[in-house]
Amino acid sequence: MALDRDKQIYLAGGLLAVAMFAGGMSAWFGGDVEKLPLRQLPQAPAPEETITRELRYGAEYYKALLVEDARKYGVSAPDPKGLAQPFALFVEFTGRQRLQARKEGGLDTKHLKITLEVTKEWAQAPGGGFTTEHAVVRIANKTDMYLAYRVVTEPSDVRRCLNKGDIPQNAIALTPQEEIARTECTIDPTTAIYVVTVEVMEIPALSYHYLCRLRPIVLLHEDRVTAGHQAGRGKPCDPIAWADIKAGAEAKQVDWADVVDFYARHSCDEYTFFRGYKFSIAPLPRLPVLPRR
User: Fold this and answer.
1) What is the tens place of the pLDDT at every residue in 127-171?
2) Which of 8, 37, 121, 225 could lock 134 by a disulfide, CB 3.0 to 4.6 Å apart?
3) Main-chain dihedrals φ then ψ at residue 149, nearest 5 degrees
């Protein structure tokens, strides 16, 4: 059907406008309009990023994680409801008791036997290493339970501890009937070692493995007596919450029992301690525990 004159003029004008626009764009971009870069679409997230917060903190994911971790460590998988029950916590000594390197010179508590002996160990000095006498504290688990523990000591002269050697040990937790030895300081006739605090928490077998992957400093242990710590099975974990834990401890808002209680229930591969979490004295309403927003 033939177009009337007005429509022909209108169509011609439209085509001319399109041609002028294309020509102008070509001139503006140097004749390479067809080479303009295409917008890049966002890349798909990495597989590990597809696990949403809701899934990670879901009951089914947590239960499956307990089963898988228990299989990996060769222990029984705890039931989430059982793991949500309060752990038994004991502050077994506070004070200042000197340890003596003799038969009756130790400290016995409900769970631990703590003794002192003097042995020759390798020490460090600016000119090189040498063997010298060390005060070595032995800590024995007297029970058939897995224990997280903290034995805080004070030397009479901390300067004698700066170049001491270290003995491989588990500075965080003990298996049933296990005994560890740790160096305190090099000694002279005036050196004294005092016990000031003994804390113990009874934990399940899987919790033992969870805790042992942490670095002792994360659980507020003193580096002087834990430098020989040997991590458990699996590579050591470095939770990103350390700065928050340290700040909370300095503000008297976070204690050893709080951090131990959290990581005894939560794998450090998946969950991170948050300030506000406290040692549980009642059954937890859910696991894993949701961080406060």
Assistant:
1) 778 899 999 999 999 999 999 999 999 999 999 898 899 999 999
2) 121
3) -145, 155
Structure tokens at 137: 């504290």
HEC per residue, the chain:
CCCCHHHHHHHHHHHHHHHHHHHHHHHHCCCCHHHCCCCCCCCCCCHHHHCCHHHHCCHHHHHHHHHHHHHHHCCCCCCHHHHCCCCCEEEEEEEEEEECCCCCCCEECCCEEEEEEEEEEEECCCCCCEEEEEEEEEEEECCCCEEEEEEEEEECCHHHHCCCCCCCECCCEECCCCEEEEEEEECCCCCCEEEEEEEEEEECHHHHHHHHCECHHHHCCCHHHHCCECCCCCCCECCCCHHHHHHHHHCCCCCHHHHHHHHCCCCCCCCCCCECECCCCCCCCCCCCCCCC
pLDDT band at 242 (very low <50, low <70, confident <90, very high): confident
- In degrees, rounded to 5, the angle at the alpha carbon of residue 167 between the alpha carbons of residues 165 and 172 is 125
